[in-house]
Amino acid sequence: MNPRAHLIKVREVISETADAVSLVFDIPADLGPRFAYAPGQFLTLQVPSDRTGSVARCYSLSSSPHCDDRMTVTVKRTADGYASNWLCDNVAAGSLLTVLEPAGNFVPPSLQRDLLLCAAGSGITPIMSILKSALTVGRGKVVVLYANRDRRSIIFERQLQDLTRKYPRRLTVHHWLESERGLPTARGIAGWAKPYRRHDVFLCGPAGFATAVQRGLGELRIPDRAIRQEAYRSLTDNPFEHHTPVLAAASPAADSGTARGDTATARVEIDGATHTLPWPRDKKLLDLLLDHGIDAPYVCRESACGTCVCSVKQGRTRMIMNEALIEEELEMGLTLACQTLPESDDVHIAFDQ
Ligand SMILES: Cc1cc2nc3c(=O)[nH]c(=O)nc-3n(C[C@H](O)[C@H](O)[C@H](O)COP(=O)(O)OP(=O)(O)OC[C@H]3O[C@@H](n4cnc5c(N)ncnc54)[C@H](O)[C@@H]3O)c2cc1C
Question: Which of 66, 154, 225, 333 sits CB 3.0–4.6 Å from 136 for a disulfide?
Fold first, then answer.
């Protein structure tokens, strides 16, 4: 079993809309430090399946570590989806779920800045955590654009109203209802967002919405690389399944079929230890670590979730794919272990994020 997986009790199930529920967790005191989280992060839940044993699905935390006592995720049914419907139909107060520790980098670097938060549908969950946190501990302005099919599908409508009343000078919530205005358009979003173009932008919603927001903000000269985005998708990998280490006694060349001499050297700092490993040039850093039995953090292994983010302290690397890191983070030397290959002969990596 993944060492980051824990059996957690559901304390309460709250019906949010006709097709969305919040699951409120009871985190045992001894797991408190392992379940400490930042606004915008997610949990990964294991959902049993007769067909495959289990599937893994990520759900963003809708609670705030700054003002909510209990960790909460909010799940919206996906039409014909497997796990979301299973969770909505089967989980009750007292249920036990296997859950991975919080992960993800859809997290504001500062809660003091002005924020422009764009969400559609269930994309409101990490946005809710970020906005409650910013209002509680920050001093900046928070502007929310929230798109939904119709009024009945708005998740957290009441909470958003209450927060707007409590912070009238700092919070503005703008609903875009498809039933009244049609699908969100780039032009409509650009017109609305113009006064907020210097805010830090966070975006979470389906592809069509994300494209409209990116185009709209593009008209305001906000480049895609400045927009932090969380893309919802189902995992194809199952991080709850055991990754069998390919033990280090085997030569690195034999490990991967790479010719001898075609390896770099990785020096990796993780969990207070430093490992020096031969790194075949065609092996991704995360695979290298797992093969050596090193417990590196990961969830999606597809560059989307940001869980395996680490810093390149020395040497050069490249990523095969990157959906999680923005320009500023790449400039700081961050990389995603699940996609990283060595470029130089010696590379020093630290899991320090
Ligand atoms: C970082 C992140 C955060 C997210 N946060 C949220 C959130 O806050 N709220 C939210 O609602 N969603 C969130 N999501 C999306 C969520 O993880 C799921 O993608 C979504 O709930 C749809 O999953 P689903 O299984 O219902 O649907 P699908 O993945 O579409 O279900 C169909 C899939 O399940 C397989 N399947 C069907 N039947 C079975 C079976 N019996 N056994 C095994 N497999 C089967 C099919 O082969 C197919 O691949 C997030 C995603 C990410 C990556």
Answer: 66
Q: Which residues line ligand 1 (CB under 6 A)?
A: 42, 49, 51-52, 55, 57-60, 73-76, 78, 81-85, 104, 122, 125, 230, 232-234, 305
Residue nearest to atom 4 of ligand 1 (CA): 59
Q: What pLDDT does 325 receive?
A: 92
Q: Whose CA is nearest to atom 31 of ligand 1?
A: 81
Q: How far is CA 79 from CA 74, 83, 122, 267, 285, in A?
A: 16, 11, 13, 46, 36
Backbone phi, psi, residue 163, to 5°: -65, -35
Distances (CA, A) of 176 to 179, 208, 217, 346: 9, 14, 16, 51
Q: Atom 9, ligand 1: which residue's CA is nearest?
A: 75
Query: Max alpha carbon distance in the chain (Å)?
Result: 66
201-246 residue pLDDT tens: 999 999 999 999 999 999 999 988 889 999 999 998 899 986 666 6
Give CA 150 to chain center in angstroms: 26
Distance CA 205, CA 241 (A): 28
